[in-house]
Structure formats: C-alpha cells, structure tokens
Amino acid sequence: MSVSTTIKSIQDIMRKDAGVDGDAQRIGQLVWTFFLKIFDDQEQELELLQDNYTSPIPERLRWRNWAADSEGITGDELLEFINNDLFKTLKELELNAGTNGRGIVVRSVFEDAYNYMNNGTLIRQVVNKINEIDFNRSDDRHTFGDIYEQILKDLQSAGNAGEFYTPRAVTQFMVDMVDPELGEKILDPACGTGGFLSCSIEHVRGKYVKTAEDEKLLQQSVFGVEKKALPHLLCTTNMLLHGIEVPSNIRHDNTLARPLRDYTPKDRVDVVVTNPPFGGTEEDGIEANFPATFRTRETADLFLVLIMHLLKPGGRAAIVLPDGTLFGEGVKTRIKEKLLEECSLHTVVRLPNGVFNPYTGIKTNLLFFTKGEPTKEVWYYEHPYPAGAKSYNKTKPMRIEEFAPEKAWWGGEKRSGREESEQAWKVSVEQIKANGYNLDIKNPNTVEDDLGDPEELLAEYKTLLVSVAETREKLKRELMDALGGGNE
Fold first, then answer.
1. Rounded CA gap, 482 and 476, in Å?
2. pLDDT in tens, 190-213
C-alpha cells in the first residue's frame, strides 16, 4: 500500500466520526496516536540497550498494553479509557517520572493534545492501522518518513493551523552549506514541524558521528522552539523518529516573547538554520522586547535581530527571508545596517517564484552569514528553474539536484575561487551602503529583452492606429453597401 493510500485510509476512518471537524483536527488526532506508537517502539529498543530502563508512562497506559492487540478494548470502553484515564493521566504526568526526562516530553506533548473522536470502534480501527507499522524496522521507519512528509503537506491545507512547508531541497541545501559539526549547538528558533532540525541531525550523524559518545553529544546539541501546539507536537514526534531519545530541548514557546536583554552567553549558539514566519505581524507588546531602534511588529524582521543576537562569535546562520526585507526601509534599513556591521553576509541565493506555491507567491531569498566580522562584499546567486520548467508544483517540486551548480560554485569553507557568471555576481558593501542598504540587487549579467527604441515603437503604433481606422472605415462602407443592396 502506498504512503498516500495509508494516510488516506486512516483519515477516511476519522471522517466517519462526528467528533472530528476538518483537516487540522484529523492531523492532531493522527499525530498523538503516532507519538505513542513511536514512543513505545523506541522504548522496546531502549529496554534492550539499558538494563534498568523505566518507562515514564504507567504500565496500563503504554501502547503495548491497550493498543497493540487488534482484538483489545474497543467501543465505549476504549473511549472511556482514552478520555478519562490516558489523557487525564498523561496531561498531569509526574515530571520526574521515568529516566532521562522522557516523562517531561510526554507531558509536554499531551498538555496540548486532544482526543477529537467520539466513536471508540472507529478509534480501534485507526489504532489497528497504525499497528501495521514497526518503527524499529528500518524499512518501516523509512516508510514513515514518507508518511510524515505526507502529513506535513496535508497540514498546509488545514486553514489557520497550517504552517509553511519548506521544500526539502531548500532545507537540505541550507544545512549542507552551513555544515553543522559534531558538538556545535544547533538552533531553529521557529522550528515548526522540525524540518531543519531533522535535516541537521541526519547531516551531523552521517558525516561526523562514529561512536556512542559522538551520538550522545549529538543528542544534546539540537534545540528548537515552536509557538503553535500542533507543529510542536509534530516536531517532537519527528525528533523521536530521528533517534533523539529525549527531545526535551524542543520547547513550546514563542522565542520572540523573551526580552532580548534576558538572553545570556549560555544561550548563544553555533548554528542557526530557519525559515521564520513572514508576511505576518506579532501580537501587541512583543516588539517591546527589542531595542527601540529595531522595534517592529513584522515577524521576519524581529527574528533576524534575534538570530544576530543569539549567534556566538564565529557562529553561522542560514535563513529564508522575503524580498520585502531586502528592499524595505525604515526599521528594516537599521536592521540591515546592523547585519552588515556585525556579521559577514557573504551569500544571498535568490530563489525563483513558486518555490513555496501554493502556500504563498512571495519571492524569497536564502541569506548566509557569519557573526563576528563586518561584511566586505556580498555574493549573489540567482537560482534558475530547471531546464524546460517555468514554475514548481506538487508533481514537479524543487529537487536537491538543482543546487549542484551552487554547491560547485560555493568554494568550500572559505568560499574561495568564486567567479561571476550568468547566475552569480558580487557587490561591495560600499555600494550597498551608498544605495541606502538596499539588498534587493538585480542580476547585472542577465540580458533584458530588447524591446526596441521608444521613438520607433511610438511611430509604429501611430501607423498601426491609422491602418486600423482605415480598415474599420472600409468595413463600415462595405456593410452599408450590403445592407442597402438587401433593401432593393
């Protein structure tokens, strides 16, 4: 059975339940059940690896003891158990329960989770479907990776609960270019469902992790914050799926709600990779957490200020920003001035239209910078569409292979050997300052279509108007003659 068919069959069961209203609730329902199944499968592995492993979940509430048996409790008995025992207990779970803080993770997940289904028989059918997946089998784990991607895509159409889904190709390219290393503290301050964090985990694990001690270090190096409940639940589940045993560093909070001055050196990080919300505004009062010079209610701008503040000297960042940040004035100008003075903004990759379709048509850019030294020059790279394509869509999304030219051009860690081309050009910081800190610099190597001399075009237009008038008059005479002849 295909991934999309599996998800569709589960959601079709949920649609029969009168208690579930809309995609957002269906996804919320699906994710807490997946969380418990993944958590239980992971515990089976931990029980083999750790002699004294103790589950933070009371024995009667562990997935294996109420959900694993396809002939187990169902109907009203199952509904009563879920509403009045499972949820009630896990929402109030003792924070010191279990080992290594896993009890904290369970409680944080269920604090914002709900059982929307009213029919215990249908719940049993959903549970039995989920039981077909064994997350300790590499094949099934890989399959769920595809299922998870499908869930995220479904989330986009869930009304106000929807989140921007950053194409996997963009996420992977940004992480590859920033190249987080083992032991570095990696942060996504607006982590959504965890795409950048999971990609970073795969990158570090595949490139640097060689021993059990290396893996332990990686487990402690990934940090994320998400404001909305459903994406936070998805992110926590995603971290479990990617082998993070205790994803307690994934916090349900608004990073911008903490005053900038309250962040201390221990909060500094080595790497930031993120696609912060843009096109929206923050709630009243949030801007007061920032210095007066940089106060704005525009979310993307506040995140840019925050990221500059959180990076250690030598820290690296890759961030998705809309065109509006590049050419905007006022507070935006002051933020860009700070960026160029405190960081080396070495690369801006300009993405084509349609990368985030159908969720937004806003044109976006990938900004790469290093904190600790001022910008001397900015390299721009205009990412083209693949040959024969004029946009992206669901059947033809952006692929990581498209970034091969950028990777070849990048020039390694020191970005040496870069050359200008039809796609690439550089601009000195003096030019940018002279232009009022406008970073929206068009590709000078693109040949614009030659539309001709304006005077000649105007003359041709006047001639065309005369010709049209003559033709209209001729047709009018012929029509009158025809009508006159018909009356005879």
1. 10
2. 998 899 999 999 999 999 999 999
Mean pLDDT check: name the lowest of 62-76, 304-318, 328-342, 404-418: 404-418
The Cβ of residue 77 has, within 10 Å, a number of other Cβ atoms equal to: 12
Query: How far is 459 from 217, CA to CA, in rounded Å?
Result: 73
**CA neighbours closer than 13 Å in the CB half-sphere of residue 159:** 7
* 71 plus 167 within the same structural domain: no
**What is the value of pTM for the model shown?**
0.83
Distance in angstroms (rounded) separating the CA atoms of residues 488 and 483: 9
Contact 349, 316 (CB under 8 A): no
Within 10 Å of residue 135's Cβ, how many Cβ atoms?
20
Q: 3-class SS at 220?
A: coil
Cβ neighbours of residue 17 under 8 Å, at least 6 residues apart? 116, 117, 118, 119, 122, 123
DSSP state of 452: -
- Based on the domain organization, do 126 and 172 belong to the same domain? no
In three-state secondary structure terms, 16 is coil
227: domain CATH number is 3.40.50.150
- Where does the pLDDT of residue 288 fall: very low under 50, low under 70, confident under 90, or very high at 90 and above? confident
Mean residue pLDDT across the chain: 87
**Rounded Cα gap, residues 32 and 279, in angstroms:** 30
Same structural domain, 401 and 359: yes
Provide the residue range defining the domain that includes 341.
163-434
- Residue 150 CB-density burial (10 A; 0-12 exposed, 13-18 middle, 19+ buried): middle
pLDDT tens, residue by residue, 83-93: 999 999 999 98
For 425, the 3-state DSSP assignment is: strand
Q: Which two tokens stand for residue 58?
A: 């009371």
Residue 135 has pLDDT above 90, yes or no: no
**Strand residue runs (E) in 257-389:** 269-274, 311-322, 343-350, 364-371, 377-382
Do the beta carbons of residue 136 and residue 44 sit within 8 Å? yes
Kindly state the greatest CA–CA separation across the chain. Answer: 112
| CA–CA distance, 23 with 41 (Å, rounded to integer) | 27
How far, in Å, are 226, 229, 253, 256 from residue 280 at the CA level?
16, 18, 18, 14
Length of the chain counted residue by residue: 488
Q: Does the residue 245 lie in any domain?
A: yes
Contacts of 463 (CB under 8 A, 6+ apart): none
Does one domain contain both 407 and 462?
no
SS3 7: helix
First to last CA, the chain: 78
Reference 398, options 200, 61, 173; nearest CA is: 173
Strand order in the sheet with 343-350: 250-252, 222-226, 186-188, 269-274, 311-322, 364-371, 343-350, 377-382, 424-428
